Amino acid sequence: MPRSSEPTAEPQTQSWETVMTDRPAVDGGTPMPERSDPSALRWLIGNELRQARTRAGKTQSEAGKILGCSQPRINYLEIGRNKQQPEEVTKLLQFYGADIAHIDRMASLAGRADQGTWWAPFSDVVPDWLKTFVGLEGLAESEFSYEPQLLHGLLQTKDYAAALLVNNLRVATVDVERVVKLRMERQARLTDADSPLHFTAVIEESVLDRLVGGHELMRDQLSHLLDLAKHANITLHVMQLAVAVHDGLDGEFALLNFAEAQSIGYVEFPDGAVYVQDQDQVAAYTQAAERLCAAALSQADSIMAIKSRLARLT
Q1: What is the pLDDT of residue 211?
Q2: What average pLDDT is seen over the chain?
Q3: pLDDT digits 0-9 by tens, 112-140
Q4: What radius of gyration, in Å, describes the C-alpha atoms of the chain?
Q5: Between β-strands 253-257 and 142-147, what pairing exists: parallel, antiparallel or unpaired?
Q6: Which domains does the chain show, CATH number per domain?
Q7: What is the rounded CA–CA span in Å between residue 272 and residue 314?
Q8: Sheet holding 198-204: strands in order across?
Q9: How does strand 234-239 pair with strand 198-204?
Q10: Which alpha helices (H) appear in 80-154, and where do they start and end?
Q11: What is the pTM for the complete model shown?
Q12: CB 203, CB 151: distance < 8 Å
């Protein structure tokens, strides 16, 4: 998979491909969920400004003349270092030839960037490279995740999450409780009554067999997966070991989709992450996500696979 060098009866569910097909276009979306994070909003708006400028074939110096400012300030606006004022966003996007509806949405987002950060109480236990993702996840409309070794954080029980952090080299023992609490707070988006996150995950079969924390803890975790699968906005696919070759063999990745902005990819590695912003690369990750869902078991068969393991543990 390409990776950018720039710094998610049986119930009726939608496949990742269906969610992507049915989701509103960038210029016809619904408002973002109210889970504010000004730094993530600045990052998202900056990415939109940079993409629009690149498509228009304009330089940062040319953009600076429109605002009557220096090229470095345009750069700061594009990387989200400085807060983008609604009038600045409007002038720049008009210069780049964006349509009126998109300009209005971006300006509206810029006007919301003064709100508080929902995860601020946990800021000291969130690595800098993860802060942007946590903020963007709270703003996303849908998320896809493939992780080969463990369950995604949004799917974990409190005990499963804590067990993963025992003697963890990246998380100090004194911080484990708060890191787990943040993970549980992130999960609130899955059951938000007003704007639930549409979440699709491909889970390797071996992950279900890994007894993290022992038999009893894993029984609770598998039961939790079955409860989550009852929600129409959550789709789980189990990848069987019989599928020897698939698009996830290059490693874990996530995709975040927004009602008012372009999608991004996210690739995490120990002590760092890559944010994939180039839309051709994002499209390649999106295709990989669709192919993974198609290669894995269906939602109904995945539920049966989880139930069979739960029965053996019981």
Answers
A1: 95
A2: 86
A3: 755 566 666 777 787 877 888 988 998 89
A4: 20
A5: antiparallel
A6: 36-111 (1.10.260.40), 131-313 (3.30.870)
A7: 38
A8: 234-239, 198-204, 142-147, 253-257, 264-269, 272-276
A9: parallel
A10: 86-95, 100-111, 128-139
A11: 0.78
A12: yes
